[in-house]
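Memo to structure team: turn this sequence into structure tokens by end of day. - J.P.
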Amino acid sequence: MRFSILSFIGLTSAAVLPRGTTPGSWNVTLTVSSAANGYNARELTAIYSSPDTAPVTTTCTYTYIPTQATVDTCTDASFKYTYSGTTVSVTQTVDNITLSGEKELSETCNGSGRSCTIQGTVPATSASA
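Reply from structure team:
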């Protein structure tokens, strides 16, 4: 009998949720600011919600000021996000289940384009226990 290692890899990374559990989503607000001197800042608030859990609010702050220490923190250590300029990707552990999702969100910028706000809902599309 032959087994493929790839089939076992697929089994370990598949979504695993208790029966009746809904993955939920994050309501995301991200503000991105920059200046000509190289200053960059991001402030993100993400509220995870699903019918099966109480809402979880996470706030993240990133600040880069040339010649000073970079600040990059989130109120929940399990929360990770990236923003590619068009897509917001999120990973977070809630009730011992690691959830992730991504979605392309549009941004609204001020007249100079140095400050933009990205808002929208990112659905959790995968989960593992």
